[in-house]
């Protein structure tokens, strides 16, 4: 239970780091759909998607820091790890940003003046955001959950606040949101660097062997993440090509709400479980690592499955409350996206063996194959069927990815899948859905009242069903009480 207890503790500590930014992300969507047309919002989505792929290439040290920090700390090689990380990060960062600026400049006429201007700002957001990501990876590797949470919250609040201020007060267009993000990073980065890395590492501490190990481990993951980007975001470009920015905007608004509702949990699980599982693998035993992965997967199913079901039965009130009328027609894609993200998070549970044995190239092959399936289906179906086809093929792509990852991972690292917990979570979610659907879609004439009531009732019904099915264990309740008491004492001591 030690590993599981550490996971639950870190999960609770990290919860604000993702839940509050996710909430802010949900708030951002109605603000943007109110302020901007679907066309302008569609352009903004294209820029942020481009920033995402650039960040994927530059952020390669993040996974290496998390994977190698425990061993470096154990062997007193942290100075070498920090210096090697900085050396391996800065040069590619400058190279990628320079090449992309040249490409954008050459394509200025094709992009148009507005999109070109937004892309240039996007380069600055990319450079600063990548530096923030690498710095925060040290906080995650060190399990500094409190600092990680504070910086994550500030990052999201400052970016949105400054961006909306530039739009509303100073009359900027949608590019004001990008400028807000860049300005918030400029303020955050020096403080974050001080907390995470403490001081700029000495050049003489750079280790060629350490850097080679990090590159050998991370580059397959970078390629895999690029393939994941294809699987996750390429549909926006295909929609833009065949259907236009208007449809990109409609698709992205409903997609963003549905994705964020489940992704906040899947991201929390990845954030809290990865450093602990590596520590258990490095310092304890293989069997304890197997037990931990099994426990984490059980928790994942118990929390994330009802979230996907809940967003699926509440699509109408969610859409009416959070999105402007011009975007309402996109509500139909939300169940497909919610369950797609659920499957994406589930396949991450099977990554453990690849990470432990440093077989990251296998992940690249699996994600690449699923990405090709997704792109192929999009090119075949999106021109005729539009964003509905994009949503359905997204779910199919994630199903293919999960199947491939399971098959490949079981050859390397076998652990007990919590089938009984999955069954009980499914039963509890089904009962919850049958109760919540009529409430969310017809309790009153107010979509907001229906939504809030549906969410509250759904949570209560689901928890009650888990107790009836005897899925919740006494030691877990005791642990949550202990964590709650500690948090309460800390709050009281600071008053």
Explain briefly what this protein structure is.
Helix content is 85%, strand content 0%. With 495 residues, the protein is an all-alpha fold. It has a domain at 36-206.
Q: Tags for this entry?
A:
mainly alpha, 495 residues, 19 helices
Q: What does this molecule look like?
A:
By secondary structure, this protein is an all-alpha fold. It has a domain of 171 residues.
Give the overall silhouette. Answer: globular
Based on DSSP secondary structure assignment, what is the total number of beta strands? 0
Order of helices and strands: HHHHHHHHHHHHHHHHHHH
The description of the largest β-sheet is: none
Structural class: mainly alpha
Overall average residue pLDDT: 86
The termini sit apart by 33 Å
Number of helices: 19
Helical residues, percent: over 70%
Strand content: under 5%
Q: Compute the CA-based radius of gyration.
A: 22 Å
Residue ranges: pLDDT <50 for 5 or more in a row? none
């Amino acid at each position: 239970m030690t590993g599981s207890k550490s996971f639950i503790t870190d999960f609770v500590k990290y919860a604000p780091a993702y839940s509050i930014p996710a909430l802010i992300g949900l708030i951002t969507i109605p603000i943007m759909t109110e302020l901007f047309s679907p066309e302008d919002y569609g352009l903004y989505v294209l820029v942020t998607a481009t920033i995402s792929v650039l960040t994927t290439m530059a952020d390669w040290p993040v996974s290496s820091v998390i994977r190698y920090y425990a061993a470096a700390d154990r062997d007193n090689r942290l100075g070498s790890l920090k210096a090697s990380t900085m050396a391996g990060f800065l040069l590619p960062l400058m190279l990628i940003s320079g090449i992309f600026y040249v490409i954008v400049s050459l394509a200025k006429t094709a992009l148009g003046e507005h999109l070109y201007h937004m892309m240039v700002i996007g380069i600055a957001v990319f450079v600063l955001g990548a530096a923030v990501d690498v710095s925060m990876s040290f906080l995650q590797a060190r399990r500094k959950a409190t600092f990680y949470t504070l910086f994550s919250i500030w990052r999201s609040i400052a970016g949105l606040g400054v961006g909306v201020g530039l739009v509303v007060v100073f009359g900027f267009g949608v590019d004001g949101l990008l400028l807000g993000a860049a300005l918030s990073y400029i303020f955050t980065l020096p403080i974050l660097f001080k907390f995470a890395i403490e001081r700029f590492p000495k050049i003489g501490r750079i280790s060629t062997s350490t850097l080679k190990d990090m590159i050998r481990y991370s580059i397959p993951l970078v390629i895999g993440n690029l393939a994941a980007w294809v699987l996750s975001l390429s549909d926006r470009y295909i929609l833009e090509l065949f259907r236009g920015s208007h449809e990109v905007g409609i698709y992205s608004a409903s997609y963003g709400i549905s994705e964020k509702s489940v992704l906040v949990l899947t991201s929390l699980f990845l954030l809290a479980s990865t450093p602990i599982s590596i520590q258990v693998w490095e310092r304890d035993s293989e069997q304890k690592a197997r037990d931990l992965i099994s426990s984490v997967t059980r928790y994942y199913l118990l929390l994330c499955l009802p979230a996907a079901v809940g967003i699926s039965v509440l699509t109408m009130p969610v859409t009416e409350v959070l999105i402007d009328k011009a975007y309402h027609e996109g509500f139909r894609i939300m169940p497909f996206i919610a369950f797609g993200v659920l499957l994406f998070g589930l396949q991450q549970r099977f990554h453990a063996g690849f990470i432990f044995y440093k077989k990251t190239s296998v992940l690249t092959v699996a994600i690449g194959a699923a990405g090709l399936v997704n792109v192929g289906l999009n090119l075949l179906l999106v021109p005729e069927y539009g964003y509905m086809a994009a949503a359905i093929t997204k779910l199919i792509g994630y199903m293919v990815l999960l199947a491939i990852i399971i098959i490949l991972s079981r050859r390397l690292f076998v652990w007990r899948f919590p089938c009984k917990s999955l069954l009980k979570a499914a039963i509890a979610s089904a009962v919850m859905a049958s109760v919540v659907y009529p409430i969310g879609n017809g309790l009153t004439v107010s979509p907001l009242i229906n939504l809030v009531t549906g969410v509250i009732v759904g949570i209560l019904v689901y928890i009650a069903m888990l107790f009836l099915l005897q899925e919740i264990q006494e030691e877990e309740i005791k642990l949550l009480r202990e964590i709650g008491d500690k948090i309460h004492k800390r709050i009281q001591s600071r008053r």
